[in-house]
Amino acid sequence: MTIKANQIESLIGTLHLSQVNLDELFRSRADLTPLKSVELFLSDQLRIRLDKQNQIRRKRARLPFEKTLESFDFGFQRSIRKEQMLQLSDMTWIEQSYNVCFLGPPGIGKTHLASALAMKALDKGYPVSFTTLDELMRLLKTENISSVSKSRLKYVGKSALVVIDEVGFLPLSSLEANLFFGFISRAVERTSLIITSNKGFDEWAEFLGDATITTAILDRLIHRCEILNMTGSSYRLEHRKTITNR
Ligand code: ADP
Ligand code: MG
């Protein structure tokens, strides 16, 4: 029985598998037994499927930039040790539902490190969501009227790691502080969080506008948490680029 390539292509389509160049896949593999051929074909399909899922997860994470630990200058940022970050890169803390908080002034690498850890989590196959607090507030406030917000929050809810960046930049209204509390109490039960904030925990009541809610949020967040207090000067300001070479 002879099987034509276009018949196989059509079967691949019907089964929703990925079209592959069979000539290329089996080139110089004339020695293959039928069983080995099937195995080669299926393992190639599996590789393609995992690659696709990986790409989709990366896109859905919505990282602001692809910054890595390798591109972070630990010589410049001396309040964090490289070993600490490498230890966190093993991601065992995600399995134990721990949280990580990066606290400190602007420009010192909080978002960079949060993104770098998020990339490591993606590499390990975890679903990840990145959002700013501002964006999270917008999503929560529009959850019931926007299908886009609803579906984003659904993905955030399914993520093993959620990064909330820029906590404390803007003051929250009392409705927003309540929404944030609700989000944190639900999240700590089922996911790990990375929080970045330009405010120390002692200043959180100021932007949250309510001491009781602040205590309730911090209580849940800090229960299992690696707190990284960062100091130093802004990398942006120190490495300011100019247009002319003066
Ligand atoms: P923050 O979130 O603390 O305000 P960012 O992480 O956004 O600061 O850092 C500002 C910019 O400077 C980013 O482009 C980041 O990649 C870069 N940056 C900050 N610190 C370092 C560092 N120690 N090494 C390399 N790049 C850095
Ligand atoms: Mg930042």
Walk me through the structure.
This protein is an alpha/beta fold. Helix content is 52%, strand content 11%. It is built from 12 helices and 5 strands. Strands 2-3-4-1-5 form a 5-stranded parallel beta sheet, sandwiched between helices. β3, α9 and β4 form a beta-alpha-beta unit. The longest helix is centred in the first third of the chain and has 28 residues. The chain is elongated, with a radius of gyration of 23 Å. It starts with a helix and ends in an 8-residue tail after the last helix. The mean pLDDT is 93. The site of magnesium ion has 5 residues, from α6 and β3. The site of magnesium ion (MG) has 5 residues, from α6 and β3.
Question: What separation lies between the terminal Cα atoms?
Answer: 77 Å
What does the radius of gyration come to? 23 Å
Oligomer: single chain
* Strand order in the largest sheet: 2-3-4-1-5
- H/E order of the elements? HHHHHEHEHHEHEHHEH
* Unreliable stretches covering 5 or more consecutive residues: none
* Outline type: elongated
Would you summarize the structure shown here?
The chain is an alpha/beta fold and 246 residues long. It contains twelve helices and five strands.
For this entry, give a set of tags.
single chain; 246 residues; alpha/beta; 5-stranded parallel β-sheet; 12 helices; 5 strands; binds adenosine-5'-diphosphate; binds magnesium ion
Helix/strand layout:
Elements: H1 5-14, H2 22-26, H3 34-61, H4 82-88, H5 92-95, E1 99-103, H6 110-123, E2 128-132, H7 133-142, H8 147-158, E3 161-167, H9 174-190, E4 192-197, H10 204-208, H11 211-222, E5 225-229, H12 235-238
Parallel strand pairs: 1-4, 1-5, 2-3, 3-4
